[in-house]
Design goal:
The protein is 42% helix and 20% strand. By secondary structure, it is α/β, with parallel strands linked by helices. It has 2 domains: 60 residues, 5' to 3' exonuclease, C-terminal subdomain (DNA polymerase, domain 1, Orthogonal Bundle); 240 residues, P-loop containing nucleotide triphosphate hydrolases (Rossmann fold, 3-Layer(aba) Sandwich), CATH 3.40.50.300. The strands form 3 sheets. The protein has a 9-stranded mixed sheet, sandwiched between helices. Strands 1-2 form a two-stranded antiparallel ribbon. The relative contact order is 0.15. The structure holds adenosine-5'-triphosphate and magnesium ion. The site of magnesium ion has 4 residues, from helix 8. InterPro entries: AAA+_ATPase, Dmc1, DNA_recomb/repair_RecA-like, DNA_repair_Rad51/TF_NusA_a-hlx, P-loop_NTPase, Rad51_C, RecA_ATP-bd, RecA_monomer-monomer_interface.
Length: 343
């Protein structure tokens, strides 16, 4: 993945690559089960269900595993027993937990003010949600992250590839070019390191996530974008009576996103739409709240609210985060992507 123009920068990139390869020890490929007495056919069934690592297996209940065609309860028991010999499913020490946290990287947004607000940038192993009015910069941040994620960690990047799931048809590969140039990277190489899919139904969106595990177990991905996470659910479930089913399916998809984030140490950046909030009160001129209700509220690790400011300026507010203060940052949308606001 040589996305850099200069020789010096490419070498930097290579050094960083070694770091990532060491990190591969964090997950064990599912086909390791074969050397522990599980037949290749059953391993293939797990892979077809989107399970590519032993750590990924741990994230499934026995009930969901026996739901995979061709896997009996006895087989599932045998598989779990074998997997327990490969990875530690139980307690780890606080020091080991600290080591795992060290693998977490923060990817720059392109704006120092925004990075500072986020404690350094968009975090891996977590889900960051951005919601806000139209043209507030949610998709522009997605485009900027597509590029900055590919920077080496010494340049506040993630040194990894990017997967982009587009449910609204707003990904513009030509936008990537000036953003890559701004960061001094080769636009062609940057584009080659982005895998992109347009989803048309919520089922399609879910299936794309299943297929992603195969790719992520093979190559170092550091970012998954879902822009937006909710649009297709709002189209595919329109009736009032369908709300419960919609929320259930949405929860399943969000659970999949959480697993991907943690299993592959990937930053998940998902955008969300806003809906009118009739309960917002008469004193608020334009009351809006994020769509998706409690299900979405609980899934996101960090929730950000975007709004328009003066001219090209945009404001980001931390809406909900476990370890960040409720503060705001002003940034700007430029031809080179998200940047600090000019006064
Ligand atoms: P929606 O809810 O409609 O999806 P959004 O929050 O995703 O909205 P974006 O598409 O990220 O909004 O932002 C659109 C804004 O980005 C527009 O105001 C536009 O002026 C600005 N923008 C887009 N391209 C450029 C560019 N090349 N240079 C400067 N600003 C740009
Ligand atoms: Mg958008």
């Amino acid at each position: 993945m040589l996305a850099f123009k200069s020789e010096e920068q490419s070498q930097l990139q290579l050094v960083e690559r070694e770091e990532i390869e060491d990190e591969d020890d964090l997950f064990e490929a599912i086909d390791k089960l074969i050397s522990h007495g599980i037949n290749a056919g059953d391993v293939k069934k797990l892979q077809d269900a989107g399970i590519y690592t032993c750590n990924g297996l741990m994230m499934h209940t026995k009930k969901s595993l026996t739901g995979i065609k061709g896997l009996s309860e006895a087989k599932v028991d045998k598989i779990c027993e074998a997997a327990e010999k490969i990875v530690n499913y139980g307690y780890i020490t606080g020091s080991d937990a600290l080591l795992r946290r060290k693998a977490v990287v923060r990817v720059t947004t392109g704006s120092l003010a925004l990075d500072e607000l986020l404690g350094g940038g968009i975090e891996t192993s977590a889900i960051t949600e951005a919601f806000g009015e139209f043209r507030s910069g949610k998709t522009q941040l997605a485009h900027t992250l597509c590029v900055s994620t590919q920077l080496p960690t010494s340049m506040k990047g993630g040194n990894g590839k990017v997967a982009y799931i587009d449910t609204e048809g707003t990904f513009r590969p030509d936008r990537i070019v000036p953003i890559a140039e701004r960061f001094g990277m080769d636009a062609g190489a940057v584009l080659d390191n982005i895998i992109y899919a347009r989803a048309y139904t919520y089922e399609h969106q879910y299936n794309l996530l299943l297929g992603l595990a195969a790719k992520m177990s093979e190559e170092p991905f550091r970012l998954l974008i879902v822009d937006s996470v909710i649009a297709l659910f709002r189209v595919d479930f329109t009736g009032r009576g369908e709300l419960a089913e919609r929320q259930q399916k949405l929860a399943q998809m969000l659970s999949r996103l959480t697993k991907i984030a943690e299993e592959f140490n990937v930053a998940v950046y998902m955008t969300n739409q806003v809906i009118a909030d009739p309960g917002g009160g008469v004193f608020i001129s334009d009351p809006k709240k994020p769509a998706g209700g409690h299900v979405l509220a609980h899934a996101a690790t960090i929730r950000l609210m975007f709004r328009k400011g003066k001219g090209e300026q945009r404001v980001c507010k931390v809406f909900d985060a476990p370890n960040l203060p409720e503060a705001e940052a002003v940034f700007q949308i430029t031809p080179g992507g998200i940047a600090d606001a000019k006064d």
